[in-house]
Amino acid sequence: MTTNKTKETIKKRQKQQMALLLENLERIPIAQIACDKAGINRTTYYRWRDKDAKFQEAADQAIKKGDDLINDMSVSQLISLVKDKHLPAITFWLRRRHPKFKDRNAVMDDEDGKIMFTIANY
To answer: How buried is 10 (Cβ within 10 angstroms: 0-12 exposed, 13-18 middle, 19+ buried)?
Structure first.
């Protein structure tokens, strides 16, 4: 039989684990890794999400923050490579950020060879 004190202890531990998990998701927005670092099973994480709408919202916000952090770090690394004159990085940046360098496929009219329209590859 579970006593009130035991239930309180379990709730306190779960709140601590949830808080640690949310911190981990803000740094690394991958559920499995965040769960491993928090010392909980992934199925526990998904059970918490299903049962607790506030936790689900907090987890979604933490994942968004984590995604933003990783995106910022990735752009920073890409810019460093561009500064180091790394040609693939320069090409990648220009093809995605500068309209003049976007990949395009031209569709030609068979009769007179005029370009009917172009399709940009993003």
So the answer is: exposed
